[in-house]
Design goal:
The structure is a homodimer.
Chain A: H1 3-15, H2 18-25, H3 29-43, E1 48-51, E2 54-57, H4 59-83, E3 90-96, H5 98-115, E4 119-125, H6 131-137, E5 142-143
Chain A binds a DNA duplex through α3.
Chain lengths: 197, 197
DNA sequence: CGAAAACAATCGTTGGACGCGATTCAAATA
DNA sequence: TATTTGAATCGCGTCCAACGATTGTTTTCG
């Protein structure tokens, strides 16, 4: 029996739905199934009745739910009481291109806020090339860029992931018919692309 | 924060000694160190003051100890309340050679008893060859053997580990001088060996 | 005072646990 | 009957946790 399992159990027991619980917990549905299965095996008793695709708490499940809630309260209490200083708060100012922001940030913000609810996130659009200065003066705390390499002094840089660069056009465009496009083919074409500072 | 970590923490906090705690928990000392380190990182606060090789609870540690105890009580309560049927009791009768018993059983019995305190273990010396009958009639529940292979019907057999067979003699024995001994060398010698039923 | 013992921290390795995506199978719904 | 919803299962990859060995330090004892 582990706290992680009890948290998962509580989520499932309250939603009575493995898939929703998985979303809440930022887990795959299969992982939730596996955890519940482990917990049931560990306790040696079924926690849910599976009636068709619908699930109900068994009597044992009902009892456990109460304990799980108290247990979780207690962990929160522990953190509240002990970690004091470890409980970050303040504002993080982040500069990043809108394209990245709209793609990745919704999920990242949710995850981050779950862990550090007292930290406010401030995003600024990445519309100029004065990053180095901004980072050094403390106007922004961090930035996400799409670029081949960055080499700033006094700034920590980490590559997060490669991102494919894709060529897109209207279906009616002459180049759309070609199987392969060489960079030479773009000669004289008007290209709309990301600003790379 | 996981229950396992809190259990480890409690053991250390009560013994004020990592090594003893590790023994109690059937863990390596390094594992205990690692768990405590993780817990301290997770909570963002030191739990022990390390004064030389001696350790003391910090203020945070004192507080946590209370919580850890309540937490553990609660898990026991959960098991007591829920697992009902999963709580095995009764007697297991096991036949095995004394050589095996004295070598492996002390630790095995301790581990087993920690997990199933209500099960009594009964050992019988392995001094006859009527194992098959004994197993089938239910006089014994299981047996440990040292042998090359066993093939009983209605009996589940599992190989646990290979065991080296070593030749030993008094230092004064003629064969003791030889670098290598062949089985032919044993011709005519009196050999004291395990009974293999 | 020097030698030995006690003990926690650290390191490298490895097996197992855990998470994931894809798939399957059953049930509910259209 | 077809489609959707939802949980279980499987195979795979990765990461974590336990271990043994070692180190460095402190305490104890000869």
């Amino acid at each position: 029996m582990e706290i992680r399992q009890l948290k998962t159990f509580r989520a499932v027991a309250e939603k009575l739905n493995f898939t929703r619980a998985a979303e809440d917990l930022h887990l795959a549905q299969s992982s939730v199934s596996a955890q519940i299965k482990l917990l049931e095996e560990d306790l040696g008793i079924r926690l849910f009745d599976r009636i068709g695709r619908r699930i109900l708490l068994t009597e044992a499940g009902e009892k456990l739910l109460g304990y799980a809630r108290r247990m979780e309260q207690m962990t929160d209490e522990i953190r509240g009481e002990l970690s004091g200083s470890g409980d970050f708060s303040g504002t993080l100012t982040i500069r990043m291109p809108e394209t990245i922001a709209s793609e990745y940030m919704p999920e990242v913000v949710e995850l981050f806020h779950d862990e550090y609810p007292k930290v406010r996130l401030e995003f600024i659009n990445c519309d100029d090339a004065r990053l180095r200065e901004e980072l050094n003066t403390g106007r922004i705390d961090m930035a996400f860029l799409m670029t081949d390499s960055v080499n700033f002094k006094n700034v920590t840089v980490e590559a997060l992931k490669p991102e494919r660069l894709v060529l897109t056009s209207a279906p009616s465009h002459p180049l759309a018919a070609k199987e392969n496009i060489l960079s030479a083919d773009l000669q004289g074409q008007t290209v709309l692309h990301l600003r790379v500072d």
